[in-house]
Design the sequence.
DNA sequence: TTTTTAGTTTTGTTGTTGCAGAACTAAAAG
DNA sequence: CTTTTAGTTCTGCAACAACAAAACTAAAAA
């Protein structure tokens, strides 16, 4: 039966939505993403998204605009048609990861400021703060290196 | 003048609070963390925290309990005293990073499920989905490796 | 026993989020 | 010029989050 598989797909979309929600996106945004992932063909119009998810136009509009501003989604048009076909930007998730990393980058600076403000009556504590600071710097550097590594790996393949 | 420096420290606490807030914690929680970072000595009682931040007891209580359940803060007691001295767990931020990483680990599985559900009419799209999937797996592996590297580096020093 | 201390739990208020529904708009079609 | 299409923006609401204030509790002190 067809409905059976479709049910499965909808549940999958729902699970993607929840996963995205935990990543800081709002529910409807996560579902739109999920919808575009399972969509066959891999693009959908505004109305199709709305119909598939059964949510309001405003929810779809806001979700799509948010996703487009983050460059996770973009759209194309077909010649002679006015409507837009929305689709995932394949590199979007990857650059998303980069921006997420960048958000941690304020910590080392703050921690250094903290240590500068502290007395040196508790050198052990200060040392540990600096170590945490080093840890964050270290991880940021490492992750950027990993991203580089990935990009080179991909470049070779293609 | 003393007040001048204290003002600076309070601003620093506030900035830490904001940084933590962006990391997904609630405002009061971020400030309690900031307070414990700049605290000299590096521990404070419930009342001291409340007094320093000028927030309610319930806010302090909830913040501390949340931080303790995440193992970012713990407390000690002094012999003969009932009150608890709250302090940062130095490894707390680091294990916090680990849990954050773990949250991404559902993605590869979901993406694989998506591809299995899709037709193969759009092999390019499917290939790209699998590539994103690989990317997340790759990054998770890399980060765990980095964490290992850090721990070994630290082990050597001490 | 009562009182104090060190918090916890409950209650209520305020502000914010996330969305639906309806009104609106701009461009194209008729 | 009117109508349709493809969305956007506005209005309003229900649910939830973050917190203050106050009531409560459990253990120790007096």
Sequence:
């Amino acid at each position: 039966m067809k409905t059976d598989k479709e049910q499965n797909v909808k549940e999958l979309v729902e699970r993607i939505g929840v996963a995205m929600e935990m990543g800081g996106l709002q529910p409807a945004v996560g579902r739109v993403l999920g919808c575009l992932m399972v969509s066959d063909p891999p693009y959908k119009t505004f109305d199709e998204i709305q119909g598939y998810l059964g949510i309001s136009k405003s929810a779809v509009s806001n979700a799509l605009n948010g996703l487009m501003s983050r460059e996770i989604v973009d759209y194309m048009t077909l010649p002679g048609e006015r409507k837009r076909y929305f689709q995932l930007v394949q590199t979007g998730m990857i650059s998303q990861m980069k921006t997420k990393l960048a958000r941690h980058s304020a910590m080392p600076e703050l921690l250094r400021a903290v240590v500068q403000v502290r007395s040196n009556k508790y050198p052990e504590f200060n040392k540990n703060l600096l170590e945490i600071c080093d840890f964050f710097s270290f991880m940021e550097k490492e992750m950027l290196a990993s991203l580089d590594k990935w990009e080179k790996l991909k470049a070779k393949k293609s």
